[in-house]
Amino acid sequence: MPYLPSLGRLADEHAFSHHIPTYPGYRERRADERAVVDRLSARPFVVVTGLSGIGKSALAAHVADMLRPDFDLVMGFRE
Prior knowledge:
With 79 residues, the protein is mainly alpha-helical. The protein contains 3 helices and 2 strands. A two-stranded antiparallel ribbon has the order 1-2.
């Protein structure tokens, strides 16, 4: 996809981090978490959409942390 920067460039610009962001006030949303996990079991990616500030990034970070044991490497993007 020509409109996405290369991973090499991201790494060079220090925009890439191997750390999943933490959200100390995260409130579990089991139905949403399960929906994301189920979708990821069938496809290589999932798109999380919604209004600004409703916790999309926190949900994605929580799911990534939940699934960490299933993968060799889990990476997150800095905000």
